[in-house]
Amino acid sequence: MALSSKLYASGYWPVRGNQKRSGSHYTTLLPQTLRLIQGEQLVFYSSSEEILSLVEQLCRQHGIVLQAELRSLHSLPAWSLAERLMQGCRAMQLDLLEKPAAFGAEKAVIHYWRDYKGAGAEVLRQMLTVWLSKIDLITALASEVDHDHLVWIDATIARFNGRRSNWRFWLSADHPDRFCHYGSEMRRYGRHLPLNASYLSGPRLRWSALQKLFNVMAERAALMPYGHDEETILAECVQHSPDWFQRIGIPYTRLAGRPLLQAQLKNRLLACHPRACR
What we know:
The strands form two sheets. The chain has a seven-stranded mixed sheet, with helices on both faces. The two termini are 26 Å apart. The chain is of the alpha/beta class. Helices cover 40% and strands 16% of the residues.
């Protein structure tokens, strides 16, 4: 692959029975997401030839240099780990108590009731496999390419358009030494998670170190009766090595007063910028 400053990676593995999002959610947002990175370079993974064909078509429309990778769910790096984390979710046995009327954005409660009880153990394992494989996939890429920065974006990252400060990630400068990310609306043990994993940008030479730390924290998480996912594990990484990370934006719902006004003003000013109106 040609030398360039930045390489994006993304993927979509259709999971039948997914209670979190419908198939139409992904097919609606995927074209919007790819429009945001027009003119860039992208590696896109999927277990579906039909999805890869759609991505190829959209990339041609937006001048994106694409490398399409057909990967089955079972071949993803986190397939085995996902089974153990699913068992940790099962072990919470939250159904010994009455199902709550609201989940309060708490990761464990959502994964237990919506995904484990609602969709089933096998569906949860498949979803966890996708979420947990992001770091391994992009770290493998980092060993193969010469780009300065590698960036993971979820195939549905367009859903955050206008919903968090500095949401135009393509206008943000990559930090030379840190992993850049957005804040989260989700909670763990009642506290907001520090990181939303829909966007994670990092220097090519730092991904291997993050992978090692992530794997250590994932092994610890697999021993716990809790509904973990990649964001709760990355939260442990942030807590362990905070100087490795830099938050570049936060959900508007977590802003108030002057910070909210400043973010809204910046949003209006950027809306007039040619590159911002993708």
